[in-house]
Design goal:
With 399 residues, the chain is of the alpha/beta class. The chain contains 15 helices and twelve strands. A seven-stranded mixed β-sheet has the order 1-7-6-5-4-2-3, with helices on both faces. A five-stranded mixed β-sheet has the order 8-9-12-11-10.
Length: 399
């Protein structure tokens, strides 16, 4: 897309990576399943292999369908480059392995996705990487740890599943001050609601499986940002082989075209549901950055354009109440996913932090009675009625 006619995000989601027009060309990016790409001329082949001109050689490295997906996300995030992975966790772990080495120091927070937390606590230390996890809402503590030395600052905002919000601009500035690479997981917010690169991040990561794809039918991850950092991540990924499959890229491309429509609906519905839950009987706490009661509502309002489609809430009675409440829901999948067109509900014990013990979840501030609720695109009136009857059923069965 030309810079002098910069489209809005909804248009970018539809057209980015698909602008090339040839007579008789398909209007949709085709799913190219070929493993290899042939050349009759050796010099042409060599020039592509050396990166002197565009082209593809082998599917583990690059693919036309995958490249279109990467370009769409790149433009949505306003990044210099993008590269993709087979899953979101592959993107996160691949970024760490590409940018870190023994003796390096990582600063992050306790409230990261459970899989990410396991990498921090179990895997990076085994490779001689010092990992410091700070209290998520203790901004000054995080800044102090950054000042003591930081090679990579990893931030997730809003967090999964308690929807805590970090001041990305303030922390990114602290990271850049000491020469750290600043990486932000933007999965919950999406490029429609938040732009971490504009707030000072070097790299942005998405589990494309979630809101980007939006249909719960394709796994994928993507890293975008500063071109030199992305190049290093790509070099690691092409050798280790966690490549995004062309079929998954095709499905993710399809999903991205409705991103603006889906996110707009989910933002509105989630805020409405969060407000209703604050006054609902049997609910002891509601976590959603769009609520004035949220501790970081002012920060969220400043750095986000919308507050996202995920919220969480705690039930009176803890896990026993959750066991009664979840099966009573009619308009929700009880599953380990989020960001889909259908509403998805679950507990961190079976979703975001299934890898953790109850004690570890408690230490992270995640009560066993917490419900994570990813709002779909259903009519919000139906979702509200469903929540009301499920809460009532949980109370009645609980005596």
């Amino acid at each position: 897309m030309t810079d002098h006619v910069r489209p809005r995000p909804g248009t970018t989601a539809v057209w980015a990576g698909e602008e090339e027009r040839r007579a008789g060309a398909p209007t949709q990016v085709p799913m190219v399943g070929s493993v290899s790409f042939g050349y009759r001329d050796l010099e042409d082949w060599m020039s592509v292999a050396r990166g002197e001109r565009p082209g593809h050689i082998y599917g583990r490295n690059t693919n036309p369908t995958v490249a279109a997906f990467e370009e769409k996300v790149r433009q949505l995030e306003g990044a210099g480059a993008a590269t993709s992975f087979a899953t979101g966790m592959a993107a996160i772990a691949g970024t760490f392995w590409a940018l870190l080495e023994p003796g390096r120091r990582v600063v992050s927070t306790r409230d990261t996705y459970g899989g990410t937390s396991v990498v921090f606590t179990d895997h990076l230390p085994r490779w001689g990487v010092d990992t410091v996890l700070c209290e998520t809402e203790a901004t000054e503590e995080i800044e102090a740890e950054i000042a003591r030395g930081c090679d990579l600052l990893y931030l997730e905002s809003p967090t999964n599943p308690t929807l805590k919000v970090l001041d990305l601009a303030r922390l990114a500035e602290a990271g850049r001050r000491v020469g750290a690479t600043v990486v932000v997981d933007n999965t919950f917010a999406t490029p429609l609601n938040q732009s971490p690169l504009a707030l000072g991040a070097h790299l942005v990561i998405h589990s494309a499986t979630k809101f980007l794809g939006g249909h719960a039918d394709a796994l994928g991850g993507v890293v975008c940002g500063d071109a030199e950092f992305v190049r290093r991540v790509f070099r690691f990924r092409e050798i280790t082989g966690a490549s995004l499959h062309p079929e998954a890229a095709y499905l993710l491309l399809r999903g991205l075209k409705t991103l603006a429509l889906r996110i707009g609906r989910q933002n509105e519905s989630a805020l409405r549901i969060a407000r209703w839950l604050e006054g609902a009987e049997g609910v002891t706490a509601v976590h959603y950055p769009g609520l004035p009661s949220h501790p970081a509502h002012a920060v969220a309002t400043r750095q986000m354009r919308g507050f996202g489609g995920v919220l969480s809430f705690a039930l009176k009675g803890g896990m026993a109440a959750v066991r009664r409440f979840l099966p009573a829901l009619r308009w929700a999948h009880l599953a380990a996913n989020l960001g889909a067109v259908e509403t998805v509900a679950g507990t961190p014990a079976t979703t975001s932090h299934v890898e953790c013990t109850p004690e570890e979840r408690a230490a992270l501030g995640i009560p066993e009675g917490l419900v994570r609720y990813s709002v779909g695109i259903e009519d919000p009136e139906d979702l509200l009625a469903d929540l009301e009857q499920a809460l009532a059923a949980a109370r009645v069965r609980g005596g």
